[in-house]
Amino acid sequence: MAKQPSSPDQPPLQVAIADKSPLIQAALNHLISEDPRFQLQAVCGDGEELLEIIEATDLDVVVTGWVMPPGDGRYVLDHLKATESAPRVVVYTGAEGEMVPSLVMAHGGAAFVSKSEQPHYLLDTIADVGQGKMVFPFLDVKRIHDNPLTGLTNRELEVLSSLAAGRTNKEIARELGVSANTVKYHVRNLYQKLRVKNRGQAIGLYLKS
After folding, report:
1. Where in the chain are the domains?
2. Helices in the chain by DSSP H: which ranges?
């Protein structure tokens, strides 16, 4: 498919890349930088650095891996839910099967692209997402509506995703800029909503949802 050059009426989309593999980083850097529809702003290797880049940079679309520290793609997606004017997220991963695309959609991603797809498909997906579209393979949407996390607030999801990444309450408090007591309050609320009794049960449920 031919690339559509940007025009004065359609400035290039501002894009950032996150992937744990330096090889994938280099490949995506070259691929996206060569496409006039996009302007690549940053390349990084983990979710924490990506969130810092998003906070400091005006981005339209983020392309991120799924299996990536400090947690998986849910860590980035759930933290972005509480971010105003957050960029749309394309998850680009080698993880196969219906589960991961369902998780991407349930946690607020805009698109899922398998690494087995041709490069032009990823580029066109980035362009489509930048225009407000969602791009996914066929999914059983009942799985998404049955997700037990849908009753959590954005801040509770942030806290839960940080717990799943191995953070302590004090670390989460520093990360979110709140007090440790506030984190305890959110943890207690999410336990009640998820009907679990402890951190391990909450994390186990989160990783399945």
Report:
1. 13-141, 147-208
2. 22-33, 47-56, 73-80, 99-106, 119-130, 141-145, 154-164, 169-176, 180-194, 199-208
Helix (H, G, I), strand (E, B) or coil at 95: coil
Residue 163, both tokens: 């717990």
Write the burial class of residue 107 (CB in 10 Å: 0-12 exposed, 13-18 middle, 19+ buried). buried
**Per-residue model confidence (pLDDT) at position 1:** 39
Q: Which two tokens stand for residue 29?
A: 């850097």
The separation between CA 169 and the C-alpha centre of its own chain, rounded to angstroms, equals 22
The fold of the 13-141 domain, in CATH, is: Rossmann fold (3.40.50)
The owner of tokens 């489509």 is 128
User: What is this structure's pTM?
Assistant: 0.77
Q: Give the model confidence (pLDDT) of 94-136 as tens digits.
A: 877 677 888 898 889 999 999 999 999 999 999 999 999 999 9
> May I ask the CATH class of domain 147-208?
mainly alpha
Strand partners, 61: 15, 88
d(CA 142, CA 194): 19
Round to whole Å and give the CA distance between 179 and 181: 5
CA distances (Å), 206 to each of 2, 8, 158, 171, 188, in order? 41, 44, 12, 19, 15
User: 149 near 118, Cβ under 8 Å?
Assistant: no
